[in-house]
Specification:
The protein is of the alpha/beta class and about 130 residues long. The chain is built from 3 helices and 6 strands; from the N terminus they run βαβααββββ. Strands 1-2-3-4-5-6 form a 6-stranded mixed beta sheet.
């Protein structure tokens, strides 16, 4: 049977370190209580929250500090992690998602191509299997 843990977190807009610490604490609490979770799912923009004005200052390239922490967790607990993060790529900001394998490696990467142009009505998504 596949065991999936979906986390809903109280995010603080722009408080990246605090959000990451809160997420890691929740992941560890669940992992210690529920053995052998196959997939942990974190919310969209779990690291930065939804304050779009601050994303240009706090989004990070991949891999980065946030994903490195998640990679270590995935390897330690032998679980997949799916996480929505703010990504900086070629001076553009994306609302991206990564899937990290139990070996602590990226295996799927998804970025929205809207670059936070909220007036746009269509959404293009690029999925990269690594």
């Amino acid at each position: 049977m596949l065991k999936v843990a979906g986390l809903q977190l109280r995010l603080e807009d722009g408080k990246k370190e605090k959000n990451l610490a809160r997420a890691l604490e929740a992941l560890r609490r669940i992992a210690s209580r529920e053995k052998e979770i196959d997939i942990f799912c974190l919310p969209e923009l779990f690291d930065t929250g939804f304050n779009y004005a601050s994303l240009k200052d706090i989004a990070e390239e991949l891999p980065g500090k946030t994903t490195n922490v998640l990679m270590n967790f995935a390897e330690e607990f032998q679980s997949y992690i799916i996480a929505g993060i703010a990504e900086r790529c070629e001076n553009k900001i994306f609302d991206s998602a990564v899937m990290i394998s139990p070996k602590g490696k990226f295996c799927v990467f998804i970025e929205k191509l809207t670059c936070f142009k909220m007036k746009r009505t269509t959404l293009l998504v690029v999925i990269k299997y690594l």
